[in-house]
Amino acid sequence: MTASTLPPATSDREPLAPVAAEPEIPVEDLTPKQIVAELDKYVVGQKPAKRAVAIALRNRWRRQQIADPMAEEIVPKNILMIGPTGVGKTEIARRLAKLARAPFLKVEASKFTEVGYVGRDVEAMVRDLMDISIGLVKDEKRRAVLQSAAERAEDRLLQLLVPAPTSASFSFDDSEERGSPTREKFRELLRKGKLENREVEVEVDETRFPSLEMFTPHGGVEEVGINLKDMMPGLFGRRKRQSVKVFEAREILKQQEVEKLIDQRQVAKEAARRVEQAGIIFLDEIDKVAGREGGRGPDISREGVQRDLLPIVEGTTVTTKYGMVRTDHILFIAAGAFHVSKPSDLIPELQGRLPIRVELSPLGKEDFVRILTEPEAALTKQYTALLATEGVAITFTPDAVEELAELAVEVNSRTENIGARRLATLMEKLLEEISYEAPDMKDTTLEVTGDYVRSALAEIAKDEDLSRYVL
User: Fold this and answer.
1) What is the dihedral of CA 341, 344, 287, 356, to 10 degrees?
2) pLDDT of residue 291
3) How far apart are CA 198 and CA 178, in angstroms?
4) Mode of pairing for the β-strands spanning 317-320 and 323-326
5) Does the bond joining 298 to the residue before it have cis omega, within 30 degrees of 0?
6) Which stretches in the chain have pLDDT values below 50?
7) How many Cβ atoms sit within 10 Å of the Cβ of residue 84?
8) What pLDDT does 150 receive?
9) DSSP SS3 for 2
10) Close Cβ partners of 423 (under 8 Å, ≥ 6 residues apart)
């Protein structure tokens, strides 16, 4: 690594277009090609998997253009992704859900237990997805009413500051503001920030709802949402008056007004609709519940989990604390490495409900080079941004990136192959000393070279026993 003046950034590769918070065109108008292009900004390679999920997302839009009863008969073509860990299976599904602004849940199939055993019921994933959808819809509703809530909070704040018309005794800090205080005069002072440290009394909700769990009829353990405030208002609905400064009161009152402006029943209705029509559940480690022919004991339990999953994937109605939710049109993306088992070890009924199969390729050196430099949130860009907050400007030379990619391939080949995740461990070890010393290195410019990467990591990478624990 050398300290130098940073040269102008140059690249032979066409720079990626910046990503906006929302797609430039509505997601329903995105073609499969455009969806793949969006995914390319975050995930390197794996075109077959991207094409499969892009078609699945577009098919949702297509189904909405068809009238009932035909539309009701068109079910999602669920996807089975096959590939080793760290090649982008989860990231593709997660980015797809973000692009579609759809409720998304990742769950490990191996965490579930067969009906009759104590553990998580498979229906819990639908309830969890509903909770996520509620959060998404609430956030949207809050943003929509934020301006109105702020205006209403200001009016309430003025009522607290000017409780009665006869407030002539109020003393101003600024002599030019002395005189007959009116509500509009107070509003002007409030907006100028001259009353921020005044104290007012506001009502705050001191409700603390306990988290309850109960055993389901199938033997599973589920968290239960019970509106105790409605059941025992005297015990759980209490409010107390609290003295706070104006700047704190403004936020408290604004949040209270936001909640008043949101129709909770409408939130639940919209959240349920999104789950049913746009929800995505990513079933990871599906290979861990694939029983092998002639298996006994644990294999029997794995098959039981598959049979419990089957009704959810096929389409059923699940009871949640917000009402009934149908799973007929939820998109299920299952994934697994299938090192020991194979997709045909899944029960035939479940295989039939995962008709689209895509195989993701293992990652090589060139893939790692691209992963380190191309995506919007590439690791080199992340560390550059992190260290910049300390006043340290760091750049990575092309040979440094090449060396990191080569070491990742080498360590993956000799130890457990964890795909692109290996890059994170290498980068953290490489920059450990700099990250530690960064607060004392302000206004420093550093260049990470291939020689520095080799000197910092080569010995650890070559020592197989040490690399197992360090890298």
Assistant:
1) 140
2) 67
3) 16
4) antiparallel
5) no
6) 2-24, 116-119, 166-180, 209-228, 230-236, 294-297
7) 18
8) 86
9) strand
10) 368, 371, 372, 379, 404, 405, 408
